[in-house]
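# step 3/5: fold
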Amino acid sequence: MRKLCKICLEVKDYELFSKNCVNEDGLSHMCKECCSAYRKFLREKHKKRGKNTFGVARARDFSVCFE
């Protein structure tokens, strides 16, 4: 089976998505690759601010990475 990643907009196999019981299909809305890139983006963003916690980032900040 295949699913659309909401971040990179590519259709990928189910095994490339993490589990998320909140969603209807039981899978995350973003693929593992985009999730990894998102976490890296958060680490860099907070490293620049001098904070040790991730907190909440806005999706529009992250979407710039894919343009």
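# step 4/5: annotate
Strands lie at 2-4, 11-13, 17-19, 27-31.
# step 5/5: archive (pending)
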